[in-house]
């Protein structure tokens, strides 16, 4: 039997890495920004505007915060999975739903409460961001949770 926390660590790493890949690709295409700016943006949630002039240390902080968030959402899903029957029915639907849930929590609660400077709402970026979270966070977490709990 695989250890609960080992599965969560692996799943969080996979989901966080896939999300990071999706964010880098979409940001490069949509905003023509270098990938390092994504990490500065994430670090600015704690450090504010100073994160953009902080160099490599802010890139590392952004990377750390990114994975902390990915692990938090992974742990939460594994925690609620046995308690919410809907999640067991269809892992694709539940993964997509969970990715949308993550987008709402991040963009309507976490980011507004952080030090991130927000621009005007952009529907294209919102849709792309939600799809990235559905595919890169929601689905891997849902599939791995389903696999873990099916074996148990």
Cα Rg: 16 Å
**Number of DSSP strands?**
0
Counting structural domains, the number is 1
Q: Characterize the overall form.
A: globular
Oligomer: single chain
The structure class reads mainly alpha
**Beta-strand percent range:** under 5%
Reading the helices and strands in chain order gives HHHHHH
How helical, in percent, are the residues? over 70%
Describe this structure in words.
The chain has 152 residues and is mostly helical. It has one domain. It has six helices and no strands. Helix 5 crosses helix 6 (123-151). The N and C termini lie close together (7 Å). It comes from Emticicia agri. The chain crosses the membrane at residues 58-80, 92-111, 123-143. This is DUF1440 domain-containing protein.
């Amino acid at each position: 039997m695989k250890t609960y926390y080992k599965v969560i660590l692996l799943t969080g790493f996979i989901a966080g890495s896939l999300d990071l890949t999706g964010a880098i690709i979409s940001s490069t295409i949509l905003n023509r920004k270098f990938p390092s700016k994504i990490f500065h943006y994430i670090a600015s949630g704690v450090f504010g505007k100073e994160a953009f002039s902080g160099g490599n240390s802010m890139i590392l902080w952004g990377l750390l915060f990114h994975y902390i968030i990915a692990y938090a959402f992974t742990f939460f899903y594994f925690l609620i999975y046995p308690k919410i029957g809907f999640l067991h029915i269809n892992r694709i639907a539940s993964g997509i739903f969970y990715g949308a849930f993550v987008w709402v929590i991040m963009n309507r609660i976490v980011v507004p409460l952080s030090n991130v400077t927000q621009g005007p709402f952009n529907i294209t970026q919102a849709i792309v961001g939600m799809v990235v979270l559905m595919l890169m966070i929601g689905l891997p977490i849902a599939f791995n949770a389903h696999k873990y709990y099916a074996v148990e």
